[in-house]
Structures are given as structure tokens and as C-alpha cells.
Amino acid sequence: MSNVNLPRPAPIRAVTPFRNSLLAILFAPALAGACEGNLNVEIEHTGVYALGHEDVVAIQPGLAGCASSDLRLTNLGVEVPIAVADGGDGRFDPGDRIEWIGQQLHGPQSWFDTYSINNSYMLSVAPGPHARIRDERPIPGSKPAALERTLHFEQENLMIRLDQNAQKPGEEPDLWQWAKLTQADPKPLPGRFDLPELQVSAGKVGVKINFRGISALFVPYDHESQRPHDHRVEFRINDRLVERFEWDGKDEVSRELELPAAWLKAEGNQFELSIPKRATPWNPDNSLVDVVMFNWIEFRYAVGSLSATSPPVQLDRASNGSFAVRWQGESPPLLYGDDGVRRYGELQGNGEATFAAAPAGTTLYAAVDPLARPKSVRAARPALWSMPTTGYDYLIVSHPSLMEAIEPLADFHRKRGLKVAVADINDIYDGFNFGIPHPRAISNFVRTAWKDWPAPKPRFLLLVGDASFDIRHETYNDLAYAKFANNSTELNFSGHFSGIPATPYKEGSAAFADRNLIPTWQYPSPEGQSASDNPFGVVDDGYYPSVAVGRFPVVEPAEVSAIVAKTITYLTRPDPGIWRRDVMFITDESDYFKKSSDQLANSVSSRGFSVDKIYASPDEADNLSHQSAIKDGLNAGQLLVHFIGHGGRFIWRTGPPDLRKNHDLFTLDDVSELQNGGRLPMVLSMTCYSAPFDNPTEDSIGERFLREADKGAVAVFAASWRNSPSTAFSKSLVDELLVPGATIGEAIVRSKKTLQDRTLVEMYNLLGDPAVVLERPRADARLALDADPWRPSVLVSLPGRTFGGLVAMDWLDEQDALLSTTVRRVDETVFSVDIPKFPDGKLAKFVRLYANDERSGQDMSAGLSLAGIGERRSNGWRWPDGLRPAPRAQAADTLKRDGFDRHAAASAGND
């Protein structure tokens, strides 16, 4: 419950990446005399630590045999006093060790840090002098010391989501709570605690408790004068009612009180917290709804004695001379002080030990061998990325376990002309946040590269590794995620708690393991904090990115390899065919979203792209036809898939949650069943929850689309939490993504800069390689109307000097419905095509073209409005200058829409 006790000695975990261990083996003799190197030393709990020579040189051979005076230890860039036990020879040799007081890492607003479990200390060498622990012994004339101790008890069991009213962007409030209390709980929350060496005769024990209100009372206007407090919590100690805390609001609050020390004991205490039922003053038959999160509790008490295993204590007042305390046990008394003094005690015949004087407020740590050992040590390279000799277009930050798997993608982009840097996330922590895991390190890395490195400035950042908001997954295996549905009885408003039922990762599998490989930021949206990679691309003040950021949310090398393989295949060997001009628009049953989707579809269609619309209907008993249409369309191939509507529970829905009928439009299982290997789309999921990639135990539709090998999507752009989709944002995205040659990451950067809604900028993230260029037709053809009013036809001009291949022209009616497709083989760049006549005098109102040059591999597209065709005009239509073709025989085949692909395949076989 408390984390102030010294941890038991345990083996040090040596974190040695392959390349570092290889270097250590190859160059150990050379480095041994060089006296150089840096060692990252991680600890989890506060205590007195020792690190032996053998553990140091096993990771950093260059630190063997150094002058003891040159050794230095830093934390957050500040030197920490150390004692070097070197046997008096002045060198750090076998059998020697360093000692220091290690402090637990606290968050800026929380006891446990939000982003990191371990504090990091950096051991290095430099010419002295450096901070050292001084040894002092008592002098005669000691006086009894006034010692007190504060014990903090906290458990990280439930995560709450704080909205913009409770959390400022960039701050790190305490999100993890011990327990949820409500008036409906049948039993009080119990908690057992000990107060070691409690001095019962000292009088008072201070208690401090931290809560956060969740609910807020609704009071009828005419009963405002009867308004009760929002919250009331009863606090009991050892079956004694101590206090009733009352307050209003949803802010974090702390309450303090003092108890008689006689009510407590050194071992076996218990506290209880409960919320009593209260009747509403205006309706005695109803109970007030009261929901409170309990966060932590602290006890401050006088200490009557010490031993070698005692938790730390503080001097209540300064001792001008030596001070005495009652010492228990036979261990020689020894106290380390945070004032940089190691105090050797002397045992007196009356059971007391005397120590050298200390200032008031000094924290003293009793210690006895074996001292605590660090949790892990690893080689550190803090200066590796501080100032390279060249700049880079593309920065890849990877977890060390995934670096080998990402290298083929880095090499692929290098061969395409980009300068690519692949960095180990540990090196980024070392160089840009003093070795402590935090997203700030990545942000500092990108800003440094942008502002200080030589040209070129970075255009892309790829994060290789998943994130998780539960950084203590390995510690709390049975941690419950407060998965509460919307429940008006307890006012668990949607978005305030972390859990949303979804497909869980299989327990015991690699995917279920700790997923926090590359951390992400948390942005406080109106519905609670949400994962955001956006700040990594921001290089100046504000929140608009300048660097395009993408992520591979994976934990296994095989998952990286699968994404890399389909990304490279997409960019080098995509299946040919008209799927490269196809865009699918999907909505739920909402008329608003249908109108929004229509606007986008019309804009895309006018540029010569083929549009498929799949709109759900509230009148349908099930969604089988829509599910089938989505699957068939994806399997046939799509350039883009745009969904706008209701999402959540990690699916696309046909409407708001309604248990009376099926609303699952597309699910995780549907993604896994796709067979669209060579025809991958980019998915724009403009809805809620499609990509909460920081969920530690459950999969999402955005992640599934990207991670599926040889199927799914080449990239996904989606939100990590609840939001209101913007039609303007979608239109800007689609427009930018369809620019020929545009990378998807830079298209997103440009689109985000058009937004005024910060929530959308922060919450929507790219899963995939930001340097991908959509395999849309890479060139634009030109279309014009023929001048002959008696023979309506379309003049086609294809780019380039020559052309040889197939041309497909879709003829559409006024509702953009496909009337027919004309497919013909062409061996010239300029020609005309008759506009088909349809039954009942129906006229085509729009034509779009797709052409593929089989010799060069280049494809192209165009679109043209046919409004006015069939209307007689005196002067007909004017041909563009120089484009009138010579008369020639024309042969046109009218085929169904997929005839182009079949014809292309047949032609390829004949060749």
C-alpha cells in the first residue's frame, strides 16, 4: 500500500540492446582504459541504493578502473551526492561500489508519475570534483530527537477521464484513483495500514485524504434554498466514526484532520470510507446520487524509535548538537540524510544511538547491508542525437525490440531519395529527457532536429511501437478499468471512465503484454483525455503540426514486418485497375451525415473519381446488405474509404446505440475477413473511438485495419476518443489527399492547419507511414466537348508523347448513377468518343475517364460535366486550340464497370 519502504534486494535487470552488447564484447579491451561511457540506472522506490563495479562494467566496460573522484551521478541533469566505496585506493575497481539516496519519480501533480514508473539516474565520468556524501559521527552531549514520519498510501486501480474544465492542455493531473465510492455501495471501502514505530504518547496523528467528485446534483429551481452538498463521505478509523467530509463540485480536493494517537496502533489499523444514502429534501422518497473517487491517504505521526529497516523519518526541529534516538536491533546504527551526510551512530548503554546534528526537515534513511539494488541498468548515449553532421527528411523512433523489423522500410525510403534516421527510443529518452520515459523526450527530439540540425528539416516522423495509458500493466495484472456503461443512476457520464467494451487481446498472448513501447500525449477533450500524437509534430508555439506524424501501434516484430511489407508493396507493386480512382463513402442512418457525405462525394466525383455510396437506413431490420456492400467494395479495391457517422465500441454503426435492433455496420471480425491484398485503401474514420491505440487490453478497428497482414488498409486516419465529426475537415482532408504526388502525412498537416477546432487537430491520429503517396491516377487527362451539335462526343487528350493501353469512360446520370462504361484500346494521345444514347431518351450528365499506359505503367484520370448536351446551339461547341483530331474509325465496347480490369487482365495474358 505504501511505497516508502526500502525495496528488498533483487537481481539487477541489465537492458543491453544487441548492438551495445556486441560493441562491449569487441571493444572491451580498448574501452577498459579509456574511462568513458554513460550508464542509465533505473529505480522504482525511494531508498538507499548500492551499485557494484561488476554490474557497471558488465554494461559499460569503459567505466572500469576510473578515478573515484571522476565518477558522477546525475538526476534530471543535477548532480546527486554519492559515496564511492573504493577501499581507499582512489580507483573504481572490482569489489567497489557507489552508494546514494534514490528517490521515487513523482508526477508534477501526482504521487505516481503519469508516464514513467522508474526514476532514472545517469552514471558517467568527468574531471572532478563532484557531489559526494560526507561522513559524520556524533560528538558528546546529544539530546533526544523529535522525529516524525509521513506515510503515503495509494493504489492505481481505476482511471478517470478529465475534460477541458478539469485539465489544462499540457498538464499531468492525477488520473488514476484507488476506488469509486457511491451511495449505492453495499459495504464501505476498507483499507489496512501499519504505522511502524508509532509513538502513542505523542498526542496527535495528522491525516490527509484526497478525493475527486464525479457527480453533481441537479436541484430544481424552486428548491435552490434546500440545496445539499454534492458529496458527503464518512471516514472511520478502527471502527470509530472520525469525520463526515462535505463539499461541492468535481475538482480534486484534499481534507486534513488530526486524530488522537491513542486511537491508532503500530500494526493492524483499518480505515473505512463510505457514502451514506441521503434523501432529496424536495422528495424524501428519492435518494441523492453521489459518486466520488478516492485517491490516496497519508498519515503523519511521531516516531518513538528506529531500526535498520525503518521507513524514512524527518527531524521535526533542528538539532544543534548530536541527537539521540532509541535504536532497536543489533545492527550498527547508520543514517543517510538528504542533506548529503552519512551519519554513523554510536550505541549507548541505555538502548539509544547518537548521531551527528542535522537541520530541521532533514529526511533520514536507515540502512543496512545489503542496500537496495537498482531495478535495471543499461548503456546510455545521451549525446548521440544532439547534433548530427547532417539533417534528415524522415525520423523513425522505434522501440529497440522492433528496430530490426523497421529497417527494411527505412532502407526503402533511403533508396527513394529520403534521408532517414532510425533512433532507439531509449537513446531519445537519454538525450532529451535525462533517461526518463516521457513523450516530452520525443517532442524535444523533433524540435531539436527542426531548429538546430543541418538541412534538410524533418518532414516525417514515424513512431514504431504501441502506446498504453496503463504503464503499470505488469504490476497490476488484475487491474480493473472501470468499465461502466452510461448509467443515470450513478451519473457515470459517458467519457468519464476509460472502459468501452471491445474485442480484448487474448490474455497470455504477446499482444496482451505491456503495450507502452512508445508513449503518446494525452489531450483533454470535452469528453475526457485522449491519445494524441499531434504534439510530436509541433515545433513552435501553438498546436498546429509542421512535421507529419504516423504510428505503427504494434508490440511484435512480426506485426511491424506485416505493415512494412504491405506498405512497400502498395508503393511499388499495387494491383493495376480502376480501383485506384474509386472512393467509398459510408454513413449511418443520420440525414445530417448523409448530406455531409453527399457534399464530399459530389466534390470527389467532379474530379473524375468513381464514387460508391453506402448509406444505412433506419427502416432496415438488419444490415446484411450494407455489410455485404462494404466487404465487396473493399475486396474489389478502393483508393479511399471515408466513414462519417456514429462510431464507438470499436465498430462503425448504423446509428446511435439501440439494443432493439442490430446496429453493427462493420466490425473487427469483418476487417479480418477481408481479401483485398493488392488493393488497399486509406481509411478515413471520421467518428468516435475508431483508433484509441493507447488502450492496454482491447483492439480497435483502426488498429486492426492497419495491422492485418496482406489485407485491411495501408493507413488509417481516425480519432482516439469521442468527438463531433466535421464535414469541412473531411473535405479538406480528401482534397489534400487527392493532390497528385501528395504524401498522406503532409496532406494531413496541411488540412489540420485549416481547422479552428483544437480537439479535432489533437484527437485525430495517423496510423501508418506518413510518407505514403496514395496510388491514385498519377496524371490528369483533359476532356472537352465536341463542336458538332448533331453528333455529341467527348474529346480526350492524354498526357505524354505516346500512349498504348486501355481507356475506360464511365457515363453517369444526374444522380451520379452509372449508366454504362465504355472501354477501348487506344494507341494515340488525342481521340474522341461518342456519347452513348440510352433508352427513353435518358442523357448522361457526367463522364469520368481512367486510362492506363501499359508500356510506361502511368495511369491518369479526368472528369467532365455534360450539362447541356442535346441542346441545339447555333455555334456548337468549340474545340480547344490544336486538339481537333483527324477523322478516324471509332470502335467502342460497352461493358459493365469492372470490364476494364477483366479486359486488362486478358490483354496482359495475350501479350
Automatic annotation (TrEMBL):
Gene3D superfamilies (alphabetical): 3.40.50.1460, Gingipain r, domain 1
Domain of life: Bacteria
Region of interest called Disordered, as start-end residue ranges on this chain: 876-911
A Pfam family recorded for this sequence: Peptidase_C25
Protein keywords: Signal
Biased composition (Basic and acidic residues): 894-904
GO biological process, one term: proteolysis
Every Gingipain domain range: 394-774
The UniProt record lists the keyword Translocase: no
Molecular-function GO term, any one: cysteine-type peptidase activity
Protein name (database record): Peptidase family C25
